Amino acid sequence: MSLVGKMFGERRERIPNIAFRMMSLAMKVHDVFKNVDTLIEDFGIEDGYTVVDYGCGPGRYVQKASSLVGPTGRIYAADIHNLAIEKVQKLIEKHYLGNVMPVFIHGYSCDIENNAADVVYALDMFHMVNDPNSLLAELHRLTRTDGFLFIDDGHQSRTVTIDQIKASGRWKIVEETKQYLQCKPVKE
Asked: From residue 184, how far is each of 96, 119, 149 by CA, in Å?
């Protein structure tokens, strides 16, 4: 396997600090040429919502999500990487994002109450997960029964993503676009 594969490869849940910094820079350059805010706007996030950005990375969607939920809403920016939490904290301070709370993920679990979120999104990270069933169980725990999960393939095939979601038994895919799958929680 190549050095890049070792640093960023599939099923590599927590990448080394240098790889995180390189990924953050690559995202920043990408975002100069493509407006990523339009993706978040597709999720139907409204004023007052509680949203979980699960696997938030350097927080590229946090500022837009914060503006969509407004001052009465809440954004939980959750990640397994300490540098992600640091980056989000800097965004909070720089842009006065009083409705954003960074949350560290331990394994797949995070300190967010059950059924807290109207919307959960997990973008560009699903391909790195070693235990998709545990991840999907945690996302299910976080999502209200009338809420939604938006998840993309990351760097794996759509077929693999769909198979993993269906195998979890916790989600029903209600919409499929080129960029993401929209899922509703299945009642337990």
From this structure: 32, 10, 6
pLDDT tens for residues 65-77?
A: 999 999 999 999 9
Instruction: Give just the sign of the alpha carbon dihedral 115, 40, 97, 19.
Output: positive
pTM > 0.90:
no
Instruction: Delimit the domains of the chain by residue range.
Output: 3-185
Phi-psi region of 53 (alpha: psi -120 to 50; beta: other; left: phi over 0): beta
Residues 77, 139 contacting (CB under 8 angstroms): no
C-alpha–C-alpha distance, residues 60 and 145, integer Å = 27
Specify the pLDDT at position 66.
98
Is residue 3 predicted with pLDDT exceeding 60?
no
3-state secondary structure at position 170 = coil
The secondary structure element, H or E, covering residue 6 is helix 3-8
Q: What is the second-level CATH architecture of the domain 3-185? A: 3-Layer(aba) Sandwich (3.40)
Residue 51 to residue 148: CA distance in whole angstroms? 10
